[in-house]
Amino acid sequence: MVKCQRLNVNCYIPESIIKTVDLEVTYNLGKSNEYKALHGETLDIYSGEYIILFGPSGCGKSTLLYAILGALPPSGGDIRIKGENPYTYTDMEMVRFQQSTIGIIYQSFNLIPSLSVLDNVALPMIFGGVAPAQREKRGMQLLKQFGVAHVANKFGSHLSGGQMQRVAVARSLINDPEILLADEPVGNLDSISAEQVMDMLAEVNEKGRKTIVLVTHDAKYLPYAHRVFYVRDGRLERDVPNPEKAQIKKSGGKGVVTEIERLARLFPYDTVDGLRVKSIMNYLSQDITFEQIERLEKLITRILQGRVDEKGFFDTLCEKFSGGGVGVSKAIARVYTDRMKQIIEQSLDVKRYRRKLELADVADEGAEFIERLRRNVLDAYPGQINRTQLERLEDAIGARLSGVLRKDGFEKRMEMPVEDGGMGIDGYWAHTLTRYLEKLIAQGIKQ
Known about the structure:
By secondary structure, the protein is of the alpha/beta class. It has 16 helices and eleven strands.
């Protein structure tokens, strides 16, 4: 609660319960099959919101969900759940976090076949050391709430798909978590059962005041959400509020800010000298299609590069989509052009941005050689590494090539703790990777 100065009354201003800043998740980091599943995404989710992550299969929405769960460490950026980074927790702290703060429902029901329905629901409380009578009472309350109390003593194999998913929802809520994650929870259900489960989740959100983050690729479920995050190719393309629901998300800010500052607060993507191409694209593109957004992004890049002037920008916006333009009306094109002009005039970084683009075209052969060596070395390593370890490895390879490190010094650097400037891997692999690097150097890997 805070004091609203103008009205001199207490007002509730929600705090974000889930927050990510420039969140990246990269699989097989540093290896030849490296794949970036999330590209530096920033979002805020507020307590009591129902959020849907929407997009096609493989777009990164489940990756984001499991990063929030605490099961998929980020490769870069920051994540906060209730103001804390769960990836700094000890093993026991993480267990408590996943028991009491956050619950999850999967597409598959994951009921243990040898346990009764009631025991499946109460199972998380067993791990928490709760007495049998108390956990059975809590379990039965939830089974009654979701209309499956009559099957409490049956085994999961005797239930319909809709009943099993209701049991799974009850189990996810047994420890009364504040956040409920759902990964395609109705993907295996018929349409009637799916609607029943979705209505049940809506009730959990509205009456139980739980924050829900649900993943789906089915557009018919979008009306359940307060806001929909459209995910595509590992990026949050836009955040769309549901006009049929009262919004929980804070709006507005204090004082007058420039367009650039507003963009920085709303869409903090990766930057080049502070000028945010995707931020500008998102700011301008709230009412157009994905296909038009892609055209607009390319057009914004061209005007920032100096390859198109203000008139060319306006004309391309107006030109029909089938003819290569963005295909918006002249009125909208004028609004976009005026905003774009204002942004460019306010930014002192355009020249530096363009210079960076020019410099990026000049190949850094030494850096590329180190990167190829690093990739080959990591392909021989079966484990996963984080961004800091990747940087430590590249530094060590560069030092070895320049003669700053000898072979034994490189091996020590591999084994040295990360906080002391090393890579922090065990002695066996430090020795193995050192030998492999020496072999690559001796064979003269092509530069």
